[in-house]
């Protein structure tokens, strides 16, 4: 019988893209502009390059453990107890990211589209969709993500229209912010790349050689980097530096200023489509968290943990939704993300290389 | 092991050799039904009987095929008589009962251990018509009839190949309905055949009278609103599907064939697409896909725009809409519900009534109610346009099942659109697409070739590519032989 829990390399590309592009997407130019001003796009390119280096690290690590997912790698490298503890940390991290996504999502939706709808109702809708899809196996999730990628095409086709009204002098002279500010901006952009760590979780389920996997993830990373850089670039030349300071979601303001013959306010349509992008990121983290949890508590299948995780994210999002809390939370998640996105895999790789540990075959990634 | 549903299954003690006891046994087994006829005969001074059910056996066939040869060839051995009735073979008593039920005539002789059965079943089928549900402009106008043998005959005539395989199943323990599974060996994935065989063998019911009754028992997720099984009354459509590597099921007494596994896009393919020119066929296919989306989303979009996002439509149109909506006493959602409900009523009434009255209903419903409801100020005229558009576009979908599904799905979308505007529509779309990704038809992905993506399959999904480009069969079926054609236009190179 064929394995029910597999994805193709094409699906791997869309999986990574969809997981990475989420809430941070709309406010990215604003967030980076705080640090790097007119050179924000350079910051994003730098982050992209750093992430590419990280992709290589991921690749080497997953190549040493071709049939194991992240949690099993943890266990093989650090022993049963420490491995499980770290898996729990990962679980907490996925929960935190999932909740952050929910909170930012509802915050923007309430601000732009549904100011009178109760907070918890929008949350519940998102959790329901999340559970509905995350409860399925990876194949179904990957299929869904593939279709969701169509949404990105809309962004790619609509935003270039702003270029003709842009003023290139806003970003001139290139590099005026200075190298340190640009680098500072680059470190703050990592939230937008969060999701790459899920490669280590899905990697054993991809039906492709490890080289093809590397190509796929590289391609995904390039696409995401270019998309981010492009969007930020457009925003930077469209709005002056002072204007961007006032706009937390510059991409939406950009779209709001267009109007077509049939659609007067494209931003409303676009923000509706953006919900799908957020949904896919949320589903990924639900999947990751439930997988981590079912790895620690082997007695249960993955499905009950999806419900639990979603419930927890729901409850968390219900209580932390003040404007200042959101800012703090975003900062906190970005910092924590550093550990789990960058530090942990590199640390694992080092251990694996130092102690020459590789997969010993018996503990393979299971299908849920 | 199948569990038997008969409560009072009797067994008889019998003396197999005596004619009397045999007849008694058959009589008893048939419950002394009054259409059981017995025709006493004599052959070389031996007494014998021809037994048959007069309601389904053809007495003329019995006379010409069984009785005349018996009289004519009195000096032959019984085994050597050239009976003209087909399919004469020897059976035991238990089999004789089944043979009787199939319209066969049983011949039993005194002093002979063998019982003969002859296929003398009455031809109860009607003459074939063009199917009403799947009309085409060009191509074959042949439709299935209610006779299994005839229907399979149509398929056999279409595919004259030794690879065409037919497997029979008995389903329904009282009705003993013959069900035939038809597939092409060498193309179809053998594991699909095995899977379907297992599912069919597990069916233990008192009756099956149509493939639709079987459908629920053998499909993957019966509670899904989307059809996973393609109904067709057209032999040519069946043949095309078989050639793609799918399996057809036909049952005795039903003029439908069901095709499985199917993908979502099979429901958009009409036979006419392939009979018309490439561009025209593609445009019409695209039209159907667009009309599917229109049916699904139009009422929801209208409600969302009026109730939540009126700022997205340009001011000029806004004025028109506002004039129309202003005097309506209730929110657009209620309006839409009234109209959509009315349309569903008219449709259902139109189907159940005889055709002439059905048309009257259409006129009364469409023209009179539509006009009156606007002038009474209950529903705005734009809403009438929206709902009427929705209804019409739902009827362009090539499958009756899918078009119903879509119209029903419109209602939850309307509810969500009325509660959350575009956000609600997007969420309902996510649910629907997620559901489509989950579905499987006989273990093959339902939403293929879109997800999982398959370039070859896409050529025949939303557009119809030129036939010479449809080189391979769809990948999701995991067929044994994917290649469909080999450079059919290579003559171009020679004609210079």
Automatic annotation (TrEMBL), chain A:
* Membrane topology term: Multi-pass membrane protein
Alphabetically ordered keywords of this record: Germination, Membrane, Transmembrane, Transmembrane helix, Transport
Task: Enumerate the InterPro entries for this protein.
Answer: Spore_GerAB
User: Which domain of life does the UniProt lineage start with?
Assistant: Bacteria
| Classification via PANTHER family | SPORE GERMINATION PROTEIN A2
Q: Which family does it belong to?
A: Belongs to the amino acid-polyamine-organocation (APC) superfamily. Spore germination protein (SGP) (TC 2.A.3.9) family.
- Output this protein's name: Germination protein
Source organism of this protein record: Neobacillus kokaensis
Q: What is the lineage of its organism?
A: Bacteria, Bacillati, Bacillota, Bacilli, Bacillales
Automatic annotation (TrEMBL), chain B:
Q: What is its main location?
A: membrane
In terms of InterPro entries, this protein maps to: Spore_Ger (IPR004995), UPF0353/GerABKA_families (IPR050768)
Membrane topology value = Multi-pass membrane protein
Query: Where are its TM segments located?
Result: 286-308, 382-402, 409-433
Where is it localised? Answer: Cell membrane; Membrane
Pfam families in UniProt: GerA (PF03323)
Tell me its family.
Belongs to the GerABKA family.
Q: What is this protein called?
A: Germination protein KA
Identify the keywords attached in UniProt to this record, alphabetized.
Membrane, Transmembrane, Transmembrane helix
Recorded superkingdom: Bacteria
């Amino acid at each position: 019988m064929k394995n029910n829990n597999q994805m193709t390399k094409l699906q791997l590309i869309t999986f990574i893209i969809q997981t990475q592009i989420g809430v941070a997407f709309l406010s990215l130019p604003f967030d980076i502009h705080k640090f790097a001003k007119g050179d924000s796009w350079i910051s994003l390119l730098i982050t992209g390059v750093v992430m590419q280096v990280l992709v290589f690290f991921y690749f080497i690590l997953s190549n040493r453990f071709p049939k194991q997912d992240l949690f099993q790698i943890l266990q093989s490298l650090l022993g049963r107890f420490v491995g499980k503890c770290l898996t729990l940390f990962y679980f907490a991290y996925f929960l935190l990211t999932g909740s952050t996504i929910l909170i930012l999502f509802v915050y923007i939706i309430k601000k732009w589209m549904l100011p009178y709808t109760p907070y918890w109702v929008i949350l519940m809708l998102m959790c329901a969709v999340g559970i509905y899809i995350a409860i399925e196996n990876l194949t179904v999730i990957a299929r869904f993500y593939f279709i969701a990628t169509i949404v990105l095409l809309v962004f790619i086709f609509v935003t270039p229209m702003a270029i003709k009204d842009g003023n290139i002098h806003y970003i001139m002279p290139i590099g005026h912010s200075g190298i340190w500010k640009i680098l500072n901006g680059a470190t703050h952009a990592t939230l937008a790349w969060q999701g790459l760590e899920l490669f280590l979780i899905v990697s054993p389920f991809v039906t492709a050689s490890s080289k093809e996997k590397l190509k796929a993830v590289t391609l995904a990373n390039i696409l995401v980097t270019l998309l981010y850089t492009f969007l930020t670039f457009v925003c930077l030349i469209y709005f002056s530096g002072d204007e961007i300071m006032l706009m937390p979601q510059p991409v939406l303001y950009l779209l709001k200023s267009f109007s077509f013959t049939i659609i007067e306010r494209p931003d409303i349509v676009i923000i509706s489509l953006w919900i799908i992008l957020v949904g896919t990121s949320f589903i990924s983290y639900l999947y990751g968290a439930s997988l981590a949890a079912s790895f620690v508590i082997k007695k249960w299948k993955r499905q009950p943990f999806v419900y639990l995780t979603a419930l927890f994210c729901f409850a968390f999002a219900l209580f932390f939704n003040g404007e200042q809390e959101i800012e703090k939370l975003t900062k906190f998640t970005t910092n924590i993300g550093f550990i789990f996105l960058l530090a942990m895999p590199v640390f694992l790789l080092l251990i694996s290389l130092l102690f020459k540990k590789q997969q010993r075959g018996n503990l393979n990634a299971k299908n849920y | 092991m199948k569990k038997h549903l008969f409560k009072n299954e009797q067994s008889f003690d019998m003396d197999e050799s005596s004619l009397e006891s045999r007849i008694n046994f058959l009589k008893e087994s048939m419950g002394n039904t009054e259409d059981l006829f017995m025709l006493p005969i004599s052959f070389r001074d031996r007494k014998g009987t021809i037994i048959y059910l007069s309601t389904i056996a053809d007495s003329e066939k019995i006379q010409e095929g069984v009785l005349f040869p018996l009289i004519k060839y009195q000096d032959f051995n019984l085994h050597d008589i050239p009976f003209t009735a087909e399919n004469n073979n020897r059976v035991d008593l238990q089999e004789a009962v089944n043979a009787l039920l199939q319209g066969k005539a049983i011949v039993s002789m005194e002093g002979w251990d063998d019982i003969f059965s002859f296929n003398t079943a009455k031809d109860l089928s009607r003459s074939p018509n063009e199917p009403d549900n799947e009309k085409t402009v060009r191509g074959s106008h042949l439709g299935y009839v209610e006779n299994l043998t005839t229907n399979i005959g149509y398929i056999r005539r279409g595919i004259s190949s030794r690879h065409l395989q037919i497997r029979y199943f008995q389903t329904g323990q009282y009705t003993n309905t013959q069900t035939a599974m038809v597939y092409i060996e060498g193309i179809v994935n053998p594991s699909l055949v095995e899977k379907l065989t297992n599912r069919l063998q597990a069916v233990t019911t008192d009756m099956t009278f149509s493939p639709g009754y079987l459908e629920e028992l053998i499909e993957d997720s019966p509670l899904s609103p989307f059809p996973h099984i393609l109904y067709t009354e057209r032999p040519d459509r069946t043949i095309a599907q078989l050639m793609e590597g799918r399996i057809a099921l036909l049952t005795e007494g039903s003029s439908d064939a069901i095709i499985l596994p199917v993908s979502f896009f099979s429901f958009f393919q009409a036979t006419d697409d392939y009979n018309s020119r490439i561009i025209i066929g593609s445009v019409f296919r695209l039209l159907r896909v667009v009309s599917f989306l229109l049916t699904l989303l139009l009422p929801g979009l209208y409600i969302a725009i009026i109730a939540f996002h009126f700022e997205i439509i340009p001011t000029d149109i806004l004025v028109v809409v506002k004039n129309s909506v202003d005097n309506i006493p209730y929110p657009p959602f209620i309006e839409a519900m009234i109209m959509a409900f009315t349309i569903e009523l008219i449709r259902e009434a139109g189907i159940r009534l005889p055709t002439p009255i059905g048309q009257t209903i259409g006129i009364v419903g469409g023209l009179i109610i539509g006009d009156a409801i606007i002038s009474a100020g209950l529903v705005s005229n734009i809403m009438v346009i929206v709902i009427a558009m929705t209804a019409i576009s739902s009827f362009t979908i090539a499958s009756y099942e899918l078009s119903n599904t879509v119209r029903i799905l419109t209602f939850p979308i309307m509810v969500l659109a009325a509660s959350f505007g575009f956000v609600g529509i997007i969420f309902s779309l996510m649910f629907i697409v997620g559901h489509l990704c989950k579905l499987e038809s006989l273990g093959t992905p339902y939403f293929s070739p879109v997800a999982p993506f398959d370039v070859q399959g896409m050529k025949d999904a939303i557009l119809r590519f030129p036939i010479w480009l449809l080189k391979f069969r769809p990948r999701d079926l995991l067929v044994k032989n994917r290649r469909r054609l080999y450079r059919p236009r290579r003559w171009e190179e020679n004609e210079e």
